Amino acid sequence: MRQDSGVDGDAQRISQLCWMFFLKIIDDQDQEFELTRKDYKSPIPKKYQWRTWAADPEGITGEELLAFINGELFPALKALPVSNKTGERRRVVRDVFEDAYNYMKSGQLMRQVVNKISGIDFNDLSERQHFGDIYEQILNDLQSAGNAGEYYTPRAVTAFMVDRIDPHPGETLFDPACGTGGFLTCALRHMREKYVKKPQQEQAMQDALRAVEKKQLPHMLCVTNMLLHGVEDPSFVRHDNTLARPYISWEQKERVDIVLTNPPFGGREEDGIESNFPQHFRTRETADLFLALIVRLLKPGGRAAVVLPDGSLFGEGVKTRLKEHLLEECNLHTIVRLPNSVFKPYASIGTNLLFFEKGTPTKEIWFYEHQVPADQKAYSMTKPIRFEHLRPCIDWWGGAKRKGRDATHQAWKVTAEEVKARGYNLDIKNPHVVADDHGDVGRLLEQLNLAEQDTARLRQQLKAILGEALTR
Asked: Rounded to whole angstroms, how far apart are CA atoms 25 and 353?
């Protein structure tokens, strides 16, 4: 694909690969369902099924292949009619192709890519699991693919959050800004390993998933991710903006048991979105709007784990009102503070994992400061955060009831009254870390003056040398 002049950068390559993976996975599933289910009908018309136009390695290629994909395949799948009779799988196909695009300009190169993908049997469990690892790496590559990195949360972080929330099959689990589906896949893996023993439990687990993604590329990546992880009907992944719906329109029956999410932060919502929220919560800051909505969406006893930037902890105005509301409506029992380098290279700001439960006000908050391993200065692309790095926090956590927690060099506790006295500023530094002694201020200023004098002297010397060279 790098040889094709139409594909520019990793984000486009990943987008291109994704719609092709999607069609192959859907077709493999269809062939299995046609054998195992009476009267099953594929959501894709026969002419556009992978087995018809792509499976034969000696099939159409070159300009003929490009003309078919651009002139027939894409228009047909974008315009698939949806009715109650055809079911949700057809809607999934149409939604995926709604904003998809074929970037490749060489039909010969495309045939080579198609043939590679055709070599994978997604009905073979071992092959699917192996490909799942490859797909995970593709998603990981998004971190360096320009702005596409914003859709990816390090898997160590998602796995840790899921492990601490401990979802069970049948509990409604919602990610209102799901990106590529990292929290959903981690939750599926967690429940299958710990709780799913019968087909009914698997079905209950899948039926209880909810997700929304605003942008086309991560939506397509997420749907494909769900298919790869054995989800039969990924139509619960809606291509929409969760915040575009009025706050008060979320009814009691739509409340959920669990919210796991990393909402976009640092961004601004489009004009008018904030008017969907009550006056005292109105802001253009995306993360704040999501936090307000999450508190509303949780059932009594519901639990949430949310990634938020440092700014949400110390910010004032709307942020203060939001934190007051959070502490009154929920038990904000734990904040895990992460170092700046966890989300590099996409973002280099401090982030925090907030864990809370709806229904009882906060009495005390435990803080845990995660530190980079001693043998490295920071996390990076080559040395990212790993799940085992978070194991000490799990050991400290204190079980499901969080009993027996102790203050340590990395953990400390504050009361809700202390937070209130601070004006709801939650940016509380580790009291066990002594601030670095940078020395006497007067001596430091003297050293600075000497350094500036040296710089000026060197600048004059360089100027003289250049002047002499120019006059020769």
From this structure: 34
